[in-house]
Amino acid sequence: MPRIAPTLYEFVELGNGDYLKIVEACLRIFDRQDWLRENRARARIKVLVDKIGIDAFRAQVEEELEGDWVRERDFSLDQILFEPNEEESAPDRPETYARPGGEDREFSRFLESNVAPQRQTGFSTVEVKITRGDLDPDQLRGLGQVMRDYTGLSARTTVQQNLVLRWVRDESVYEVWRALSELGLGDAGADELTDVVSCPGTDSCKLGITSSMGLSQAIQERLVQLELDDELTRRIHVKMSGCPNGCGQHHIANIGFYGASLKVGEHTIPAYIAHLGGTYEGGDVRYGQRLKARLPAKRVPDAVERWVRFYESDRVHGEEFNAFVDRVGTTEFESRVKDLTLPMQFSLENMNNFIDWNRNGPFEVQRGEGECAV
Ligand code: SF4
After folding, report:
1. Would 270 be classed as within a structural domain?
2. pLDDT tens-digit map of 118-168
3. Within this chain, do residues 72 and 111 fall inside the same structural domain, yes or no?
4. Residue 191 to residue 197: CA distance in whole angstroms
5. What is the position in ligand 1's atom list of the atom closest to the CA of 246?
């Protein structure tokens, strides 16, 4: 299970070699913990820190740093530091460029949610919303062309499964948006409500219980259909993982889910457990509160819709989603979806609930040995 990492040191200098020394000291300590190798699922540094506490771990690091290896090694950065000068390859100011004609609402929304001024005057960053982190070959080649034409070849991937183009000339933002739109990548709303994040789940992860990507698609489609335009509502983040390990970051979402199962006689229903009120923004990390109820996977989009509607109708002026969760309490959220959590009998009528999203056959839990075993 994920947890919030305790602080080992508030600040560590890079230039004097301290950063590399401390990282290596941590690795050396971890490498000596043979007891962690007995169970692959426990072979994690977090298990060690949980057991001895961060203060004892820090004491071990200090002791490790007294070892001969520190004096014997070269921790200078001269040979290893890679500092590309991106500014050097930034595009020149274009002499001619396209401009939006009249009122272009879609572009205005894109500007509002996906474009930010870069620190260097005259440049913008453009965040490309990549649904479920999926790109087809044409989109990837197209993105390469956009980068060659407009960015000086600088981009960053984000933990929200998006791509940020950098060094885009302010004058070129409209052309970039048009080029992205032709690739099906010009959607506004990056990092907003409809920018749902999920791990691969059973699509490709052997540890997955449920199809988190399938659920992600279903929730995203529902949220787009709802056409929710309220500024506070748009700030809600929805994320899901295909199992409790949390690669889809469900625990820090405002509305998060992780995959589980519900046994009904001989049959099994793909299900999700919800977390509400998590956050990761502004340096403030908080895990969401886990709800008691298990929701059948096919009913999760209904639950999300009800909770969002509940928030919109009952919040006080200017109240953010997490503040609302804190004020009304998770029990109130549970009661809003009580009918959705009730178990059902297997029958022709509700057979759909026994099949996971994006699947055709009956659901069963098939977990293998994963690479990560988080
Ligand atoms: S191990 Fe990670 S990627 Fe795999 S299903 Fe679980 S949360 Fe998702």
Report:
1. yes
2. 999 999 999 999 998 899 999 999 999 999 999 988 899 999 999 999 999
3. no
4. 9
5. 7
Residues making up the chain, counted from first to last: 374
Q: Are residues 229 and 275 in the same domain?
A: yes
Distance 200 CA to ligand 1 centre (A): 7
- In ligand 1, the atom with minimum distance to the C-alpha of 208 is 5
Amino acid letter, 160: Q
Written as one string, the DSSP assignment of 292-310 is EEEEEGGGHHHHHHHHHHH
- Residue of 44, 161, 202, 205 to mutate, ligand 1, most atoms within 8 A of C-beta: 205
Probe ligand 1: pick from 1, 203, 245, 250, max atoms within 8 Å of CB?
Answer: 245
List, for residues 181-212, the tens digit of each pLDDT value: 999 999 999 999 999 999 999 999 989 999 99
Residues 159 and 204 both lie in one domain: no
**What is the distance in A from the centroid of ligand 1 to the CA of 8?**
27
Please check whether residue 124 is in contact with residue 170, taking contact to mean a CB–CB distance below 8 angstroms.
yes
In the Cβ-directed half-sphere of 247, how many Cα atoms lie within 13 Å?
A: 20
Residue 361 lies in a domain: no
Helix axes 54-64, 45-52, angle to 10 degrees: 110
pLDDT the model gives residue 259: 96
| 160 & 61 share domain | no
From the CA of 202, give the closest atom in ligand 1.
5
Alpha-carbon gap, residue 18 to 112, rounded angstroms: 41
| Same domain for 338 and 222 | yes
- Domain extent for 19: 1-81
Domain boundary among 127, 159, 182: 182
Could you tell me if residue 246 is inside a domain? Answer: yes
Q: Indicate the average pLDDT of the chain.
A: 93
Measured from the CA of 370, which atom of ligand 1 is nearest?
1
Ligand 1 atom with minimal separation from the 201 CA:
5
Q: Which residues line ligand 1 (CB under 6 A)?
A: 199-201, 205, 207-208, 241-243, 245-248, 370, 372, 374
Same domain, yes or no: 56 and 105? no
Query: How many domains does the chain divide into?
Result: 3
Indicate the range of 51-60, 91-100, 271-280 predicted with least confidence: 91-100
